[in-house]
Amino acid sequence: MSQLKEKLYLCSGLLSGLCIVVITLLLLAQIVGRLCGFIVPSAEDFAGYALAASTFLGLAYTFREGGHIRVTLLIERFSPLPRKIQEGTILVLSFCLLCYLSYACSYMVYESYIYDEVSYGYIPVPLWIPQTTVAIGVVALNLAILDALIMVLRGKQPTYSEQEDSLSLEEI
Description:
By secondary structure, this protein is an all-alpha fold. It has one domain (2-171). Helix content is 78%, strand content 0%.
């Protein structure tokens, strides 16, 4: 099960990077198109969809790797027990908030699908397609936070915390 979770987080991060490449290719196509006298229809729309996908798909991977911004100057000052309490409290609150956000994003995808909502560009795109990547990214982040919460409740150090500690040791 642990290997499956790690592959999910890695896949999420790789897809996020792929979306950045897609944005770059779309912008390059627009530049070349302007120089050659043609336009790339709905390139801005597709770049926006890829940006949203990149942002949300990258959340879980970034969380696992300790890349999210935390107030480590304050957290490092806690002794071990208060730090575990603080970590657990924040993870519980984050998990609750992300459960709601996962539901809201998934429901948004469902509504867009049911009502056949499409974009207003040259190329009409069913909105549920780009919205799905947002929902998947939020659900993946929710799973990563749940995984970290379970680790804290078991008395282990979460993966993101290990990464932060190793980075702070390298700075010294």
